[in-house]
Amino acid sequence: MSAQIRLVEVTDANRDAVIAVRVHPAQERFVASVETSFKHARENPEAKPWFRAVYDGDTPVGFVMLSWNLVPTPDLRGPYFLWRLLVDAGHQGRGYGTAILTEVVALLREAGATELYTSCVPGEGSPQPFYRAFGFEPTGEVDDDGEIILLLDLGSRP
């Protein structure tokens, strides 16, 4: 299946439906919830959080959050950092993750970005193989939380 998605602003009207999007319980140690993501966005405005619900038709199937065009500091990588990407457990395995990243890459290119950072917890069940298959490469860095830092050269992705 080739997932057809759209990125939708989170509003009071759809917030509860978006918060209900959850990864599989076995993935919870790798990916924070949407609700936690909103909390992190509120607590870290200097990270310039940009987030969207991911819809297929009228159904929320995922969530994505980035640091958008921030000035990098020793504590904040960027200017673009994929902070959160999750696909609802009931919608996984249908190509949504790749579709979300493809859409995000297109938006970043339109904004003039040339690279996108992300990080992930290593271990069995980690999203690292997914990111590697998409084109992210390890930078050799590990953050203070033990997460592996990955970098996607936006010029290398069709």
From TrEMBL:
InterPro entries: Acyl_CoA_acyltransferase, GNAT_dom, Sper_AcTfrase_N. The keyword GTP-binding does not apply. PROSITE patterns: GNAT. One of its GO terms (molecular function) is acyltransferase activity, transferring groups other than amino-acyl groups. It comes from the Bacteria. Transmembrane segments: none annotated. Keywords: Transferase. The keyword Transferase applies. Pfam families: Acetyltransf_1 (PF00583). Residues 5-155 form the N-acetyltransferase domain. This is Diamine N-acetyltransferase. It comes from Lentzea waywayandensis.
